[in-house]
TrEMBL record:
Domain PTS EIIA type-2: 2-142
Family recorded in the similarity comment: Belongs to the PEP-utilizing enzyme family.
UniProt xrefs under InterPro entries: HPr-like, HPr-like_sf, PEP-util_enz_mobile_dom, PEP-utilizing_PTS_enzyme, PEP_util_AS, PEP_util_C, PEP_util_CS, Phosphohistidine_dom_sf
Gene Ontology molecular function: phosphoenolpyruvate-protein phosphotransferase activity
Natural source organism: Pseudomonas qingdaonensis
UniProt protein name: phosphoenolpyruvate--protein phosphotransferase
Subcellular locations according to the entry: Cytoplasm
Keyword Protein biosynthesis listed: no
UniProt entry tagged with the keyword Lyase: no
Length: 952
């Protein structure tokens, strides 16, 4: 049965012509397992028989009776083409709905679309839809109703002339999401219609998302074109939604009741006259927000989820912000409030749910919305400036702060603290000329700052980021919007930040990972300009290598780091297996993460000493301590140098026990360097990184070439490949997966690929073809059930008949406790196990590996995790199979002795760590390591295990 859901929709696609659009659709249908390769021919043949253009900018490509056999499952996939695709005869398609169906099920689709097709102007609305949700609404919804409620009425607004009043009206429409950013500019071009009695009317369909009417009256008497200007209607017009209102308004004017509108003192009075939605006298409660980082994504998500449990409407606003209340159920709207610690939230609920919803929301906010919070002073005092003083204080000189060891090494240098600063600026400017001049000077200053950064950055990837920032600064679209606001009297910082924020949100709304990153860039460069405008230039980077202090370092932040300037990384939040920590290790920058919010208060320039091995920070260390640390660093450097010199030799313990040391990689590029650094093979090829580097599922040939490059580079050394591990928290942008409450416990890894066998088959084929006679090891991620393994193995066995290979082993990753506990059952069937300690630790200890405050405790040396590894190794060895470790634990020098002692045969680590891990192995005595491992298994905590290792 065909149904429409947001998961089927891909927004913001582009295709040069109909052929390209059909190709995209076919790829989507194949990738999602609905049809087999070859369906494209059916789509093309059907178009050749007659265009599938439906009208209203929609086409419904589908196959022919001859290609029905290629359909695996009934379904549809929708591609939005905002730039339009010529479907022949001048018909422009903005939405192509590709159908996979064996019979005439597309008729059901027509039935689903009939209401939408009755709507006028649907094509433009489809083109402009900013999100899959909005698009679906357009398709399914009845003709939309005109939005007209209290939030659309602005009485006595400050306006000096007609243009400014127009801008006020347009702003109300934009806030209600009726129109896009440029709507004010659009209205300025339209000829205003005088309705009589000083009332004026403007309307346009351009950039309209949903129909809405705003009514604004000026604070002071104004005139326009020689007539009074008492009030202005601004209509975001879509279809015939405003028809009834217009008729009512005409009657009103004929009856001579215009002044009831422009003399009204409340929006309720205006709505009563116009027949709009009356403001409700809903119960409300207020509560101060105590979360240290405000209402950011995680607490906002908690709040939205809680609100969804109530049937009725619940809204929230930030008291004193002047902004309207938003639905608590919408995560994006909650984030758009930008609520900070210390601000007061007002929750307003529909009477039918107020009794239950308001106390629950109040209690949840007071409890911190899933975060540990420092209580605020009572609400009455919240507004008083003294209680807004930070509750935390910076650690004193000489203090040691324990964080999480995220990347080994000792670093020292001045603190370079990068936290979002808050700027105060007036909303109204002195005059458009003065504000324009200030803005231009700030833009020029930032442009030359960026120029300098580009010149100074050695890495191309980093330079490209700043070039993108430059382009953003000179974007004429942004400039026009800002100019409009300056003309309307806004100050330069207010105009600039409003436009930047709106543009960033628009990009985020497209639900595209790349565009979301661009949104972060836009905010980044936007704040750079703001800082200059507010006279608070960015804190200059220290000249000497520094310790970067941040709240949390995202992977993209790490990508921008220049390892020559950043001596170390210190974060307030995050854990050792967070992505950023993994990248820091790959770059070889010592890092301590999760050190607590107080580190953000450290004064810029304070000397810091980081011990990335022990996870320890010393603030302004005493001279002798610094000396000791530097001496230790020197020794470590010498040890590493010695280790590097022997990186190509095998890792054998003093008493002759050999351990293989392999590398973890995510792409073929740089494989020669990996071998140079001493890898004896690849122990984990994270193939999802290859998939993520492509805008669509890479086809078989592309994958084969990539795998072939790795095998060529390995020159006969073994390659352990993990099949695609996406889903859950790691979605592929082009692979829609239904939203899940607990993505880590959801459809990810093998669970997902078994649901999309075509993708898995094509990956396996590419691997087998690339391998030929060379040693290939294939393993499946996230196996938790024996049946999953058997299905996956059966697929490999079948394909192997088709594509013979000379040296293949098939195994599983041990990442889920159930797999470890089932190791005795699995061992006879597999060729090997590879333990993914990152996931195994998170699932054993029930701690999200990316959890901002808890992940610090997710230590893979926890005896419970070690017990599972022990079970795995014993079972494997009993059946003559080998066991590797490919999680981050394998590179932790303290863990190496324990893992070797447990009998692990192979350690797979980031290439940079190979030499060090080999050196640690060479220092060991296997018998003693076995004793250490036995001891570790009976400890009570990871800390106890680490203490044992230190003693060892
Ligand atoms: C693991 O879970 O330990 C692992 C190696 O896989 P990933 O970190 O890619 O999830
Ligand atoms: Mg994993």
């Amino acid at each position: 049965m065909l149904e429409l859901t947001i998961e089927q929709i891909s927004m913001g696609q582009s295709a040069v012509d109909k052929t390209a659009a059909l190709q995209l659709l076919a790829e989507r249908l194949v990738a999602d397992g609905l049809v087999a390769e070859g369906y494209l021919a059916g789509l093309q043949a059907r178009e050749a028989q007659g265009s599938t253009f439906l009208g209203q900018g929609i086409a419904i490509p589908h196959g022919t009776p001859q290609t029905r056999e290629l359909v695996h499952a009934t379904g549809v996939r929708l591609l939005q083409f905002p730039e339009g695709v010529d479907w022949g005869d001048g018909q422009i398609v903005y939405l192509a709905i590709g159908i996979a169906a064996r019979s005439d099920e597309h008729l059901r689709l027509l039935q689903l679309l009939t209401r939408a097709l009755g709507e006028t102007d649907l094509a433009q609305a489809l083109r402009r839809a900013g999100s899959a949700e909005a698009l679906l609404k357009l398709l399914q919804g009845a003709p939309q109703e005109l939005a007209l409620d209290a939030q659309m009425i602005g009485l006595g607004v400050p306006a000096e002339d007609f243009e400014e009043l127009v801008w006020r009206g347009a702003r109300l429409l934009r806030r209600a999401d009726c129109a896009g950013n440029g709507f004010a500019a659009v209205l300025q071009q339209v000829e205003a219609l005088p309705l009589g009695d000083g009332l004026w009317w403007l309307h346009s369909e351009q950039t309209v998302r949903k129909p809405g009417l705003a009514f604004v009256t000026p604070q002071q008497p104004l005139r326009y074109l020689g007539q009074p200007l008492n009030g202005l209607f601004c209509l975001a017009s879509l279809g015939a939604a405003h028809q009834a209102l217009l008729e009512r308004l005409c009657t009103l004017l004929i009856e001579g009741r215009a002044q009831e509108l422009f003399r009204a003192t409340s929006s309720r009075a205006v709505l009563e006259v116009l027949g709009g939605e009356l403001p409700a006298d809903w119960p409300s409660v207020r509560v101060g927000l105590a979360n240290a980082h405000g209402l950011h994504a995680r607490p906002a998500k908690e709040l939205a989820q809680l609100a969804k449990a109530f049937e009725g409407e619940v809204r929230v606003r930030v008291v004193d912000s002047g902004e309207a209340a938003v639905s608590v159920k919408s995560l994006s709207k909650l984030l758009s409030l930008g609520a900070r610690r210390g601000q007061v939230l007002e929750f307003i609920a529909e009477p039918s749910v107020a009794d239950s919803a308001l106390p629950a929301l109040l209690a949840a906010v007071q409890a911190g919305l899933g975060e540990a919070v420092e209580a605020l002073a009572p609400v009455s005092e919240v507004a008083a400036p003294q209680v807004l003083e930070p509750v935390l204080s910076a650690p004193l000189p000489g203090t040691q702060v324990q964080g999480v060891a995220a990347s080994p090494g000792i670093a020292c240098g001045p603190a370079h603290v990068q936290v979002l600063r808050h700027f105060d600026y007036p909303l109204r400017g002195e005059s458009p000329v003065i504000e324009r001049d200030r803005l231009q000077r700030a833009l020029a200053a930032v442009a030359s700052e960026l120029e300098a950064l580009i010149r100074r950055s050695p890495a191309k990837a980093i330079r490209e980021i700043f070039v993108t920032h430059q382009e953003m600064l000179s974007d004429p679209g942004l400039g026009d919007e800002v100019e409009l606001r300056l003309l309307q009297g806004e100050s330069a910082p207010a105009a600039w930040m409003t436009v930047i924020e709106a543009a960033a949100r628009q990009q985020e709304a497209l639900h595209d990972a790349l565009l979301a990153e661009r949104a972060a860039d836009l905010r980044d460069v936007g704040r750079r300009v703001l800082a200059t405008l507010c006279g608070a230039a960015e804190v200059a980077e220290p000249q000497q290598p520094y310790v970067l202090v941040m709240d949390e370092v995202g992977p993209s932040d790490v990508a921008r780091l220049d390892p020559a300037r950043v001596a170390g990384i210190l974060t307030a939040r995050g854990g050792a297996t967070a992505h950023s920590a993994i990248v820091a290790r790959a770059l070889g920058i010592p890092a301590v993460v999760g050190a607590g919010a107080a580190v953000l208060l450290i004064a810029a320039g304070t000397e810091l000493l980081l011990d990335g091995q022990r996870g320890r920070l010393t603030v302004a260390p005493a001279a002798d301590e610094l000396q000791r640390a530097l001496a230790e660093r020197e020794q470590r450097e010498q040890r590493l140098q010695a280790a590097r010199a022997r990186r190509l030799e095998p890792a054998v313990t003093r008493d002759g026990h050999a351990v293989e040391v392999f590398a973890n990689i995510g792409e073929s590029a740089g494989i020669e360097q990996v071998i140079y650094l001493g890898a004896e093979g690849i122990g984990l090829l994270r193939t999802e990184l290859i998939f993520m580097a492509h805008p669509q599922v890479p086809d078989e040939a592309t994958q084969e070439a990539e795998y072939r490059r790795v095998l060529d580079g390995l020159q006969g050394r073994p390659l352990v490949v993990r099949t695609l591990d996406v889903g859950g928290d790691k979605p592929l942008p082009y692979w829609p997966i239904a939203k899940e409450e607990n993505p880590f416990l959801g459809v990810r890894g093998i669970r997902l690929t078994l649901q999309r066998p075509q993708v898995m088959e094509s990956q396996l084929r590419a691997l087998l073809r690339a391998a030929g006679e060379r040693p290939l090891r294939i393993m499946f991620p996230m196996v938790g059930q024996v049946e999953e393994w058997r299905q996956a193995r059966a697929m490999v066995e079948r394909l192997r008949q088709e594509i013979p290979v000379g040296d293949l082993q098939v195994g599983i990753m041990i990442e889920v406790p159930s797999a470890a506990l089932l190791a005795p059952v699995l061992a006879p069937e597999v060729d090997f196990f590879s333990v993914g300690t990152n996931d195994l630790t998170q699932y054993t200890l029930a701690i999200d590996r990316g959890h901002p405050s808890l992940s610090a405790q997710a230590d893979g040396l926890h005896p419970a995790v070690l017990q599972l590894i022990d079970i795995t190794v014993r079972a494997a060895h009993a059946h003559g199979k080998w066991v590797g470790i490919c999680g981050e634990l394998a590179a932790d020098p303290q863990a190496v002795a324990v893992l070797v002692g447990l009998g692990v045969d192979e350690l797979s680590v980031a290439a940079r760590s190979i030499a060090e891990v080999k050196a640690v192995v060479r220092e060991l005595n296997f018998e003693q390591a076995r004793q250490l491992a036995r001891d570790a298994l009976v400890q009570g905590s990871a800390a106890d295990v680490r203490a044992r290792v230190e003693m060892h």
